[in-house]
Design a protein that fits this description.
single chain, about 260 residues, alpha/beta, 4 helices, 17 strands, about 30% strand
Length: about 260
Amino acid sequence: MVLLLSQSQFEVLTEFDILRPCAAFQTRRGLLLSRAILRLPRHFFFCYNPSYMVITYCGMAFMKVQFGDTTLAFNPLGKNAEMSGPRFGADVAFVSLKDPNFNGTEQLSYGEKVPFVVNGPGEYEIKGVYVKGVASEGPNNKINTIYSVVLEGISLCHLGSLASPDIPTAALEAIGEVDVLFVPAWGGDALSTAAADKVVAALEPKIIIPLFKGPKGDGKDALKAFLKEIGEEGGTPLDKLTLKKKDLEGKEGEVMVLESVA
């Protein structure tokens, strides 16, 4: 019998010395570990898929997050958006604003993947993904939804197209602890650089990812202004961010700049 373990399950079992892998070989589903678990017969095996979270920036507020076989998409660019973005299959799609620049969920169906769409405030659990959507002020008095998403023990917060830094205390409490924060930094109707800095200070994330690529230009000036405001250099831009839970240890407000694929 083969039991498939998630990364977090594997780490807990090995930490408490319940599982002691004594042999391993690669399979198409992951790493197959021979059993060494208390009171189970020798024919038990455990299949561990050593997944990492992979975060890709797709322009404006469009983010792609992958963990193993699960793909999340935040604020996908639609067919009538001011700029074009990549198309791929997603399991869950999050829409912060009713606008073509944020609600292109039709672009996220590919092959067998058709996304479950979350498009407003509330609490959800979809395929092991825990979600809180919090109402906030968007551009032109529209309702913007901030999403707090927990996947495999990593907490993500996407501010959408937040236009005001004044997030109520109850909303901050609902968002809770933030490991990775996606901050709108492209200017326009979204947060100003000073307002973005205020929100970052209120949420105290471990990692900050600025969303700087707007419909006009490459967004480098907007990025430079954001980094100057929060007093960070941002380091060398990455094509994508690969992340595990343990990578977050000791981090406090570290800025990670991702190149936009759009």
